[in-house]
Amino acid sequence: MRLRLTFDRPSGRDLTVFGGYCLAAAVYIAIGVAWIDFLLSFWVGLGYLLVAAWLVPSLVRRLA
Amino acid sequence: MSWAAHDLEPYAIQKHMRLKVAFVPLLIGSYSPDMMTKWFVYGIHLGPWDLKASDPAQFHRGWPGFGFTHSLVYGVAIGLVIWKVFGSKLWGVSFCIAQFAHAITDAGDTVGTMLLFPWTFHFHIDAWAYAGQTGRMTDAAAYFSGLGCMWDLVFIVYGLYSWRVLTSAYFDNVIYRADAFWPWLNRAVPRGALLVLYRAAFFYGTSRWIAWTIWAHVIHHYPYDLSWGGPHWVPAAHP
Predict the structure, then answer these.
(1) pTM for this model (two decimals)
(2) ipTM for the assembly
């Protein structure tokens, strides 16, 4: 019997969503490295993510 | 102490237990041992006052102190209160499991945790240095230079490998269905925002891990020391 390690492949849509979060993360990390206090609070991170990953995309979709 | 594992552990637990646990109490349970104590470990300025524990490690993990928050009995006690007072066995059990995960993970450092409190023995495997007493910045530099940050990395990699846990389909079919909290919140908050709320702790833990690593090793050039009990350039606290 042969054992194979398989990886569940994401779809194009999944990768697009992931790319959006990576972009949001890159900005968050850049701000955090420059101004370390930004990294300290979970609530700041949550607020940032709501704006970057939900509010802004929702507004862009509505305007488009 | 851990800097990102407690953000990420709930996703790993959720992946394995699916509908048997609820995500929000998992996250609260995972954060709960440090909720009341972390600010006093590092100290804060309040107007003219500087508030800080005179012995941060003792305050954080010891007895007398708030070390009981890192014990198994604390998880059981709060879990029982949630179950019996607030009437949710699902929330009580979920809180308890995640609090256990936090307490056990923190036994990885040199101070360890009083897992079997009221027995005040500290269980510690000394894998990485506890340096909370040195202040937030030195603690961050030390943590992100030793095996502690590698333990966090295990959860980041495991989360990315288990990427379906973070998808909208998983949120709809498992997270949302497992806990009436989400439909309740959905009356006021759109579903897209709920999905972002669910993913937030993973985003926060992973992004913060990367940011602190850059801060410690690109901006400040602290040396890595991945030996057992390291980094040895920081004075580690012991029970």
Answers:
(1) 0.94
(2) 0.93
